[in-house]
From TrEMBL:
Name of the featured protein: Phosphomannomutase
GO biological process, one term: carbohydrate metabolic process
Key words, A-Z: Isomerase, Magnesium, Metal-binding, Phosphoprotein
Every Alpha-D-phosphohexomutase C-terminal domain range: 371-442
Pfam families per the UniProt record, alphabetical: PGM_PMM_I, PGM_PMM_II, PGM_PMM_III, PGM_PMM_IV
Keyword Ribonucleoprotein: no
Gene Ontology terms for molecular function: intramolecular phosphotransferase activity; metal ion binding
Highest taxon of the lineage: Bacteria
Keyword Thylakoid: no
Length: 450
């Protein structure tokens, strides 16, 4: 067993099994979770990785040893765990490593009502207490264990939030990547006017076909081909724990998460006029523009789900979107759900007769670079040189890294929290300008990194 400090990250627990995360560690974390949160009952779910059931069982032993009852939901997506936490009013823990390779596993933790537990809201205390408990004998006496199937309740709840019963028939290709979408999609789509074309629905934590990470373009190739070959109306790709969803149109072309954010925001604002919508600082300029045009109040935040969720709770925002295809809903306990975002897209498409490419065109106003990563040994010096190069050419802000905004263009350059990388996102009203801005920044950063 490795150092617990290494696997406790800013927002969750993540490590290689068993070298960094093993059953004794999970057991100690279970006991520490109960002690730190004061939970009298906890709900636990896990993904399809081979290591997930034994790690979840160990956590449960630790929690019960501290006299907490446990509701064990078994197999589930991360947003199913959030549903469980919200609907049951219980703290919860999800065993998953999301899109990471098969040798990894981890834990996502929340308080009752799906309120996230991060580094500044209890995760450090859980880590430190677990380190103290590691290796100590576990009491056999403790709380009760209840096995509870929550999949049908999860599906019913989502269908109360987005009504798909009246849409026109749609053919939909879904690539589950052998992840938890293969478990949840059939339950949610059951009985709807949807012809489902499944790709890689077999639950297999070894990910035999491709990584369950739709942010990487190569992982979308099978989905794009299947959409074109089958004449489908659209395609959906989920990550390993199915809390993120990527959309491709009827031509197999990727749809920007910024366009999806704007589309869902418009739908939520129709139900909640004048509401606040959260977007992170590297979503498209089109998002706040469209939110304002539909009577909403856009609020810009740093990148990262803890910042999004905290700002949503503070402002009572109805919806929040990120460039990484995470989508957050007030009606879903301010938590993120890729499935719920996908259902909004299906509703927007199925309530009218145009193809998806035409529907999303209204929400795609700018040309974006996507995220470009550069290995940089001295990040501060690189940022200083970029500041100097763009002095007097735009407005600067440092909410998260460096953002420079000019007339019809902007870029953000921010350090990675975990690697010696600078992450660049650039956008402009025309592609030539975007390319010029992107390449100028990369040239400056390249001079620093050589």
């Amino acid at each position: 067993m490795g150092d617990l400090a290494k696997i406790f990250k800013a927002y969750d627990v993540r490590g290689v099994v068993p070298a960094e995360l093993d059953e004794p560690a999970a057991e100690a974390v279970g006991a520490a979770f109960v002690e730190v949160t004061g939970a009298r009952s906890v709900v636990v779910a896990h993904d399809m990785r081979d290591s997930s059931p034994p790690l979840a069982a160990a956590f449960i032993r630790g929690a019960r040893s501290r006299h907490s009852d446990v509701v064990h939901a078994g197999l589930g997506s991360t947003d199913l765990l959030y549903y469980a936490s919200g609907s049951l009013g219980l703290p919860g823990v999800m065993f998953t490593a999301s899109h990471n390779p098969a040798r990894y596993n981890g834990m996502k933790m929340c308080r009752a009502g799906a309120v996230p537990i991060g580094g500044d809201t209890g995760l450090i205390e859980i880590r430190d207490r677990a380190a103290e408990l590691l290796g100590a004998p576990v009491s056999e006496q403790g709380g009760s264990l209840i096995e509870k199937d929550l999949l049908s309740g999860y599906a019913r709840h989502l269908r109360t939030l987005v009504d798909l019963s009246g849409i026109r028939p749609l053919k939909v290709v879904v690539d589950a990547g052998n992840g938890m979408g293969g478990h949840t999609v059939p339950a949610v789509f059951d009985g709807l006017p949807i012809e489902l074309v499944p790709l890689y629905f077999e639950l297999d934590g070894s990910f035999p076909n491709h990584e369950a990470n739709p942010l990487e373009p190569q992982n979308l190739l099978d989905l794009q081909r299947a959409v074109r070959d089958s004449g489908a109306d659209l395609g959906l790709a989920f990550d390993g724990d199915a809390d993120r969803c990527w959309v491709v149109d009827e031509h197999g072309a990727s749809v920007s998460p910024s366009a999806i954010t704007a589309l869902v925001a418009v739908r939520e604002l129709a139900k909640h006029p004048g509401a606040t919508v959260i977007h992170n600082l590297i979503t498209s300029l089109g998002v706040p523009e469209i939110v304002r045009e539909h009577g909403g109040l856009p609020v810009r935040t740093r990148v990262g789900h803890s910042f999004i969720k905290a700002e949503m709770a503070r402002t009572g925002a109805v919806f929040g979107g990120e460039h990484s295809a995470h989508y957050y809903f007030r009606d879903f306990w301010f938590a993120d759900s890729g499935m719920l975002a996908a259902m909004h897209v299906l509703a927007a498409l199925g309530e009218q007769g145009r193809p998806l490419s035409q529907v999303v065109a209204a929400y795609s106003r700018y040309h974006a670079s996507g995220e470009v990563n550069s290995a940089v040994s001295d990040q501060d010096d690189a940022l200083r040189r970029v500041r100097e190069a763009f002095a007097g050419r735009g407005t600067f802000d440092e909410l998260d890294g460096l953002t420079v905004s000019g007339s019809g263009w902007w870029f953000n350059l921010r350090p990675s929290n975990t690697e010696p990388l600078l992450r660049l996102n650039a956008e402009a009203a025309d592609e030539t300008k975007m390319t010029a801005i992107r390449d100028e920044v990369l040239t400056i950063v390249g001079k620093v990194s050589e």
